[in-house]
Amino acid sequence: MIEYKDYIEKNKFEMKQMLLELASIPAPSNQEEKRARYCKNWLEHYGAKGVYIDEALNVIYPIGCTKENPIVVIMAHMDTVFPDTDGIPVLQKDGKILAPGIGDDTANLSALLFVARYIAENNLLPSSVGVLIVANSGEEGLGNLKGSKQICKDFGKRIKEFISFDGYMSGMCADAVGSKRVRIEMKTEGGHSYGAFGNRNAIAYLSSMITSLYTITPPCTGRRTSYNVGSIKGGTSVNTIAQQAEMLYEFRSDSREDLAFMDNHLEAVIAYYRAKGITVNVEIVGERPCNGEVDETKQEELVLKANRIVEKYYGKQPTCEPGSTDCNIPLSMGIPSLCLGAVSGGGAHTREEWIEESSLETGYHIAFELIMSYFE
Description:
Elements: H1 4-23, H2 33-45, E1 52-53, E2 59-63, E3 71-77, E4 91-93, E5 96-98, H3 102-121, E6 130-136, H4 146-155, E7 159-165, E8 171-173, E9 178-187, E10 191-192, H5 202-213, E11 225-234, E12 240-241, E13 244-253, H6 256-275, E14 279-288, H7 296-314, E15 319-320, H8 328-332, E16 337-340, E17 345-346, E18 354-356, H9 359-372
Parallel strand pairs: 3-6, 3-7, 7-16, 8-15
Antiparallel strand pairs: 1-2, 2-6, 4-5, 5-18, 8-16, 9-13, 9-14, 10-12, 11-13, 17-18
Helix pairs in contact: 1-3, 1-9, 3-9, 5-6, 7-9
């Protein structure tokens, strides 16, 4: 068997070509079918057995998993924030690879698949637990952690540890920032701007509601609580009193108590406008939980192991900050979990997103050493 350090050196150019191909495949949240097929076919081409796509569009490669043994989940998400469905432009320039979604999360996904290929080609089995390699769906935005939720639903308390490769190697996330995202619609009688002047205007009332939501001082039981109206739309024309208007609103916190406080404030504001006879329709479009009761010792052991590996290859320890990631779901269930990156870059969630090509090999070493620690 080739040692994985030699394996990286032998195959790194080929893996870069694979990354360029994978990055060109569009994968908006909830529309990851093309990438899912690519990942499954690619894994099977290199000898991975038992690979399947579940109902949430996760591509799952089980290694040494029986029906009951404890497992470690290791994933990287396929989806991007971009709505493109016809293809993604990929450029190479000045030592960088540029593409929407290249760092979040395609390069990390490529590193995970590289390790999976090594495991499959060498018929390796983990030492004491089953390992579930997952190219998962639905991490971004209104994907609402669909893939992570499905994995945790299907495998539950069998999951001993949960690792997500996502983001840059300069950072790490071991605490969950929870959130709630809602679409709020207001409806009024509307009418002609002159002939029906005096009738209630849905845009005006929506604007008033936004002002009410923004009067709150965020609670601070945890590290931080935030809120935001990210989108508004409505109305018909310049000479029409608007009958309908809507917005997308979210709040976030790393504290369950603070999330509950913000939720109560939202409900009170909605009730106030309904009491005026305004139709207010509310649809929850996303909800992510905070940490549950996680064993602090086991969580710390996982973080320290990852810190040592990242520092070994990256040269310094990553900063550790709370975040909203695929780890929110297992953390809420009390499962030791960690999100870390295996690439360097910038411009995430913009069309100018880029990664440093030279960081790929460093990231491969981080991914290999962390994952192969379960095969010793």
